[in-house]
Amino acid sequence: MFNIINKNKNISNGRTNFYQKGITIMEVLILVAVLGLIVLIVLPQFSKIRENQVLKNAVGDVLSSINKARGQTLSSLDSSEYGVHFQANKVIIFKGTAYSAISPDNEMVNIVTPASISNISLSGGGSDVYFSRLLGAPSKTGTVTISSTSYNRIITISATGVASSN
């Protein structure tokens, strides 16, 4: 019986030596190279995903501002019309039929970079749209283009006052 125990110890010691081997420098270098390659492939994709999300949020903010101005007009809030003034980096909801930069009633909605309003093409020109109290019809129809570095989205304001994006 003593011999059997000694034989098991020898086998056990042999396995212990096998598991005590470490990681070689070559294995570490290969691991670092593979991880670096994965980062180089995935990182630009995250940047594009973020940019696209910022653009979607900007389009949502502009659509929300247009709909809010139209809704406030239709509900005759303060017995007034409301409109939207477009600038490159913000949209301003204003009270009345003309935009005034110093009005305390203005509500600013900032557009986060890299998104911005790159083109305003409204009938009759300008960068303001206000809505009529009875029907909610816009004073101007047309499009507003929101751009980022790689993407563009166009918001269309129809004759009924409904705003939609492509």
Keywords:
single chain; 166 residues; alpha+beta; four-stranded antiparallel sheet
Number of strands: 8
**What's the helix-strand series?**
HHEEEEEEEE
Strand content: 15-25%
**Mean pLDDT, all residues:** 87
Name the overall outline: elongated
The largest beta-sheet arranges its strands as 3-2-1-5
**Poorly predicted regions:** none
Provide a compact summary of the structure.
The protein has 166 residues and is α+β, with helices and mostly antiparallel strands. The protein contains two helices and eight strands. Strand 1 and strand 2 form a beta hairpin.
Give an overview in words.
The chain has 166 residues and is α+β, with helices and mostly antiparallel strands. It contains two helices and eight strands. The protein has helices at 2-19, 25-74, and strands at 82-86, 90-95, 107-110, 116-122, 128-130, 142-147, 152-157, 163-165. The strands form two sheets. A four-stranded antiparallel beta sheet has the order 3-2-1-5, with helices on one face. A hairpin with a 5-residue loop joins strand 7 (152-157) and strand 8 (163-165). It is elongated, with a radius of gyration of 32 Å. The termini are far apart. The mean pLDDT is 87.
